[in-house]
Specification:
- The chain folds into two domains: 128 residues, PurM-like, N-terminal domain (60s Ribosomal Protein L30, Chain: A, 2-Layer Sandwich); 192 residues, PurM-like C-terminal domain (Phosphoribosyl-aminoimidazole Synthetase, Chain A, domain 2), CATH 3.90.650.10.
- Helices cover 34% and strands 25% of the residues.
- The chain contains eleven helices and 13 strands.
- It has a seven-stranded mixed sheet, sandwiched between helices. A six-stranded mixed sheet has the order 1-2-3-6-4-5, with helices on one face.
- Strand 12 and strand 13 form a beta hairpin.
């Protein structure tokens, strides 16, 4: 039997063993239910597709309250946008630490309000309180709801053999953004002031909302984008594996064809992590029908978002294949994201 990972999200085996068999009452209106590699649940309500996604409210005071609030809202909205439906509503529960002050709450909430306003998200309900044994960064949970036509959403079951794999921004966006926010002095000492400023700029790339909503403008399903996945824990390798598994397909991806943002490789080497296996909120994996793939890349590039076609979906019998410097190897799910151990080591001064 599988064991719960030491840290981070549970594995596909734990999900399949414990969570998936116990999903409450069945309902014929559920169009997309829980599945490893699927970010969003979708139900048919009133002849509309309504998407739901739930995540922790992740607040890190060390980022600064405004920056932390921006990050928290964009984490929530990014998963929602992978459905192809625009995020519309937010239900949020804040279980705050006892030491949070009124001033800090005011700054944080005002920044959350402004970012929701910017994204077109209405906060419709919630709960707020301070409680013992609640600690940063996990200070509650939230659900983002999207609404659209029944022919407008995307999900892995629409993916087909031959679909192209498009990757935006490249690996380790979240890892680098967090390291830059938490350890700017160390990065400046090692790489210089100009490099440190570039690395800090990566922080605000930790969102896939614009990426996803731009990609679907070319069309969906047989007219374009078939599925999208936010590469969070375990990064691009984990995200690709999960997406292919959810689609019931194989995948062939070429490492050298994946775009890479400035500063990523240097920072990952310094902190001794594999960028492609590391947490990468902000990196969007898009599956797209071949005849629209170049157009998706062009649309993303026109918005200043790095993106490239890095592979294609194959038959399930072909398995998960990673091509590195012309050599084929198996694409394996990392299971445990290397970022977390490196991050806590860095907090303790171990580099």
């Amino acid at each position: 039997m599988a064991e719960i990972p030491e840290i981070g999200k549970v594995s596909a085996d734990i999900f399949s063993e414990i969570i998936f068999p116990r999903l409450g009452a069945k309902n014929k209106d559920v169009l997309v239910g829980p599945k490893h590699g699927t970010d969003v649940g979708i139900a048919e309500i009133g002849n509309m597709a309504v998407s739901f996604t739930t995540d922790p409210v992740f607040i890190v005071p060390e980022y600064g309250w405004e920056r932390a609030a921006w990050f928290a809202i964009n984490i929530l909205a990014s998963d929602s946008a992978t459905s192809g439906l625009k995020p519309r509503y937010l239900s949020i529960d804040l279980n705050l630490p006892m030491n949070m002050t009124k001033r800090e709450l005011t700054i944080m909430w005002d920044a959350m309000h402004r970012e929701c306003e910017n994204l077109g998200i209405n906060i419709i309900t919630g709960h707020t309180g301070r409680y013992e044994n609640c600690h940063y960064p996990m200070v509650g949970g939230a659900t983002v709801i999207g609404v659209g036509g029944l022919d407008e959403y995307v999900t892995p079951r629409f993916a087909r053999k031959g679909d192209k794999v498009i990757i935006s921004k490249g690996p380790a966006i979240e890892a680098v953004g967090i390291f830059a926010a938490m350890f700017p002095a160390i990065i400046e000492t090692e790489f210089g002031s100009e490099f440190r400023q570039k690395a800090e700029g990566v922080f605000y790339k930790m969102t896939t909302v614009e990426d996803a909503l731009a990609a679907i403008t070319v069309g969906v399903r047989d007219e374009g984008v078939s599925a999208m996945h936010d590469a969070t824990e375990c990064g691009i390798w984990g995200g690709l594996y999960e997406l292919a598994e959810a689609a019931g397909l194989g995948v062939r991806v070429e490492l050298e064809k994946i775009v890479v943002e400035d500063t990523v490789n240097e920072i990952c080497r310094f902190f001794k992590i594999d960028p492609y296996a590391s947490i990468s909120e902000g990196t969007l994996i898009v599956l797209c029908r071949p005849h629209k793939a170049e157009e998706v890349v062009s649309v993303l590039n026109a918005r200043g978002i790095l993106a490239s076609i890095a592979g294609e979906m194959t038959g399930p019998e072909d398995g998960m294949v990673l091509v590195r410097q012309g050599r084929e190897t198996s694409l394996v799910h990392p299971i445990v994201d290397p970022f977390w151990r490196a991050f806590y080591n860095a907090l303790e001064g171990k580099f």
